Task: inverse folding
């Protein structure tokens, strides 16, 4: 039977690469993003989704339900990151991080439960080492990722009866187009490449369903960026 996957933030970067990988692996993929993607595949459904808007999330799931009643795999990936010191961070910037990185996953999970397959659905959340480790000049991002982790840890206990798997991935910095917008001085040579990230993602997805990986931290051999 064909498996179905949901990927948020599918328009670029990790979300786009994950969507391509899952399509090649035989999944039907429902990609959610605000801007859409140029990805074309007979088993890819590009559905508009603003993860910060409850109306948009509700409409997204209503649309998806016309094609599938369940998801075998959910990839909670959508997120934003901007760099500035706490004193230079505006209230709007801080709120935007919370809206996308914390409120967004809350809305996703709020309306996801009816799509779960008992003993089967696997929820993979792309967090960051910033959900465990404090970095300078990304206070809003740090706070939003710590918050998202707390949300997921609570959800695990609420959904215990479903006996589904949760995997929280905590990658170090990854060389994606995100860094073009951030304008960081960090060397791209000290970041994980997309291929390296996908090798870990593939390992998690293809592992036997009897195995769970609650948390996995991985980063470039150079270590944490500072």
Result:
């Amino acid at each position: 039977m064909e498996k179905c996957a949901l990927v948020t933030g599918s328009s670029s970067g990790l979300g786009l690469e994950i969507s391509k990988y899952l399509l090649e692996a035989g999944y039907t993929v429902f990609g959610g993003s605000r801007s859409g993607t140029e990805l074309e595949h007979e088993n890819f459904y590009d559905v508009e989704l603003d993860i910060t808007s409850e109306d948009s999330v509700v409409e997204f799931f209503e649309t998806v339900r016309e094609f599938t009643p369940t998801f075998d795999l959910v990839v909670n990936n959508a997120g934003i990151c901007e760099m500035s010191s706490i004193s230079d961070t505006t209230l709007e910037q801080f709120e935007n991080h919370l809206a996308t990185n914390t409120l967004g996953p809350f809305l996703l999970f709020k309306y996801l439960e009816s799509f779960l397959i008992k003993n089967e659905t696997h929820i993979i959340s792309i967090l960051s080492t910033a959900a465990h480790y404090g970095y300078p000049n990304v206070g809003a991002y740090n706070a939003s990722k710590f918050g998202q982790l707390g949300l997921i840890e609570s959800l695990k206990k609420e959904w215990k009866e479903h006996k589904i798997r949760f995997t929280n991935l905590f990658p170090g910095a990854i060389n994606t187009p995100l860094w073009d917008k951030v304008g960081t001085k960090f060397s791209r040579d000290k970041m994980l490449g997309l291929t390296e990230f996908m090798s870990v993602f593939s390992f998690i997805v293809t592992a036997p369903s009897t195995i769970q990986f609650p948390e996995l931290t991985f980063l470039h051999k150079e270590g944490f960026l500072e």
